[in-house]
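G.,

No rush on this.
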Amino acid sequence: MDARVDDTAIALAVDLDGTLISGDLLWECVFRLVRANPLFALMLPVWLLGGKARFKHEVFSRVSVDPASLGYRPEVLRFLEAEKERGRVLILATASAQDHAGRIAAHLGLFDRVIGSTPDTNLKSAAKRARLVADYGDAGFDYVGNSRDDVAVFEAARRSYVVAPDREARAWSDAHGGAILVDHGQTSLTDVVRMLRVHQWAKNVLIAVPAVLAHTVFEPVTLVHLIGAFFAFSFLASAVYVFNDLFDLSMDRRHPTKCKRPLAAGRIDPATGIKIAFGLMAFSVLITMTLPPLFGIVLALYFVATTAYSLKVKRWLLLDVLTLAGLYTVRIIAGMAAVGAEPSYWLLAFSIFFFLSLALVKRYVELDLAKISERQRLSGRGYRPEDKEVIAQAGMASGFSAIVVLALYLDSPAVYQLYDHPWMIWPICPLVLYLIMRIWILAKRREFNDDPVVFIATDWRSQLMIVFGAALMFAAGAVDFHALGL
């Protein structure tokens, strides 16, 4: 007899987190709560001490979630729609708050019943199993789940369907013949690298700039400190990227390109992302302990500033780009702290203007590519399409200001002390001008849509200008023109 003949008489219970949606509603609400008011981060441990049920109630009661913004798995939705058409009773059974689950069910229009957590009960694992068995009997329901918390429910269900399983759920499915509806495989190293945005580590080469300009970069102690500082900064920056993606999950899912990020696409679950982020932060702290104390202070300030940027500042008009320019400059200050170099106010002034120009070009491109009306704000930003020309003018003016600062520096006493032939490094001015003008022209042509700093670090023409500039600086200090008969 076909086992599916009586399926319509068997209720089908479906898990929410990681199953119906690719993310985790609790974690999404936690990050939305902290983004709305960072002081709530101090309350999270207090609520957790009261138990998981109270923790969920406190978080869910303070956050409103738009059901349309969640990352639903299309394969699961198609499966449920087909089962609904066959006449089956569908139950949304989740450890998330029942009222939130009710709004999700109403939005989808698929479920006949919703059961979820309450202030007194955390409907997870054994508790969910007991509730379903009490209502439908042992083996009186089918179940769709994804994680080790669902294994207890799998064992009480008549038939189990597994979605994007973790290790324990996959092992149970292999041993008991559970049907796998969606299988993206285990989290790959490629997904982790993309989540951490390792390509953005190129920005942290700025740490070496003070040592390069002071001609101490190849000293053994300096080199070791620079390598340590680079990785300490890179690990911390990647951790911040993870938290930033968690804060922006709903916006990223609606973005044409950011929706492909591993967290937004559901390739990596939030809990795994958080574990990796805290691991990277721990490694960053360990490395920092081997470096001068001043570097640790600068790194801590960077963390505070970049966290504030992720939470609030990036949504504020103009302050966001000024903060971005400051964060790039902090990398240079960190390089000074790591090697004990004297502060160069010429370098810091050049850095602020140069990176402000690049931050503005990034905003210009985002506005230019956004498909929004003239009076509508860019999602998650403080800009509107009519701001484009002002941004372009300010960006190019800032770039030219950086050239002026550079030209004044090249005629300063510091340069005459460092270089035997300072006139040889004057061509650096048009080289930097070329970098700035080219990136703005490409932006105007809509031929540029990358992070500008990463673009400069990976574009062969920009690399050629950088190599040529480095060669000029070397020659200005190392070539003996008298020996060459010049």
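When you get to it, here's the other one too:
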Amino acid sequence: MQISTRFTLAVHSLLYIVRFSGDCRVTSKRVAASTGANPVVIRRLFCQLKDAGIIMVEPGVGGASVVKNYDEVTLLDVFRAVESTESNLFAFHDSPNSDCPIGGAIHKILDGELEAAQRALENRLRQTTLQDLLGRLPS
């Protein structure tokens, strides 16, 4: 399993926005230079973060800014804003054979494990805020 890079790019972008928004207009081009990603990818992330109510983006080259208090934005908020998981993190194959002893029981024996793993991830991400991460940045 691998979660896409959107999540870590979004966290990187948010930290960049917070750190540099007082010094300059934080544009997708500037964030792209820091992340090594294409500015188009950063603009898409900005749209997702804006739709989630985490940032505001000024039209043109106005730049981005975080609109919530940094101690209110959790990693779970960022994850949910940019990852395209519906409700379940783990996708299940479409048609297990119900006539097979494994296929007929796979949901019963595996669903609870997957739900517990997802809850554990969400609980951990819920514990860390942007403020927490800002405190870990070098001065």
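The mean pLDDT is 92. DSSP finds six helices and two strands in the chain.

Enjoy the weekend,
O.
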